[in-house]
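Example protein as discussed:

>
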Amino acid sequence: MTAISRGETPAPEGLRFVHLGFGAGAVEYETAWQEQRRVHAARFADEIPDTCLLVEHPPVYTAGRRTADNERPLDGTPVIDVDRGGKITWHGPGQLVGYPIQKLPRPVDVVAHVRRLEEALIRACAELGLETTRVEGRSGVWVLGDPVEDRPCPGGLSLDFDPRLADEEFDPRLNGPEYAPSNAGQRREDRKLAAIGIRVAKGVTMHGFSLNVNPDNTWFDKIVPCGIRDAGVTSLANELGREITVAEVVPVVEKHLRAVLEGAELLPRAV
C-alpha cells in the first residue's frame, strides 16, 4: 500500500489532528479505513493521544450495519459495507470527513459521544454564518425547513397525499427531481448538513462525521441517505449562498472539535 502523506496540526496537549489529504490529495475510503484501524490500535495501547483524522474522499458510497437493501443504488453502483452504525451515505469531493479516535471511559456512553460531535459541528457552522440544529430521533446536524403546512407540495399534491408519508413502497430514487434528496432546500424541508456514524471497539471510537461543504449533492439522489425518505441533504455553500471550500472550513471545525472534545467531562454510561 502506498504510504499516506500526512500533515499534522500541532497541539500542546490533548486532541491531535492529522490531515490525510484533501482536494487533489484526496484519499481512497478503504485506505483511510485501514489507517483508522492502525490509529485505533495505537490509541487503545496508549501509544498516541486522542487523534482526529481529517480527509476528503473520492466519490464512494458506504453502508453502515443497519442499511436495508432498498436504500442502496438501483443501478449496481458499488457500495462499501462498513462496521459503523447507521445506514448508507455518500462521501466525496467537497465534503469534509472526520474520524475522531478517542478513548472513552467504560461502559461507553455512545449517545453522549455523538452529541459532542454534533455540538462541535453546530458551533462550527454558527461561526461560518449558518444556524443549524439537531432533529429529535435523527442524528447529525440539520437545517430546519418551513412548517409542514407552509411547504410547497411535491408534484402539486396536497400534503395529505404526499406518498412518502403513507406509502411504504414509495421509492424517492424512482420518482424524479421533485422528490430527490438534493432538492430538499427547494421544497423547504428539513435537510441534513452533517451525518454521523460511529463504532466503539475496546472503548475507543472509530468512524465519525461527514460535513457537506460544497459537494455535488446529486450523488445522494442514487440512494436513500441515512434511510430517511421524508427529508434531504444540503451543504454550507447552498445554505450560505456563497463559495466556500473545505480548506476554509477545516480550521474552524478543528477549533470547535478541540473545544468540545477536550473540554467535556467524560463519564461512563449510567448502568
The CA atoms of residues 39 and 219 lie 30 Å apart.
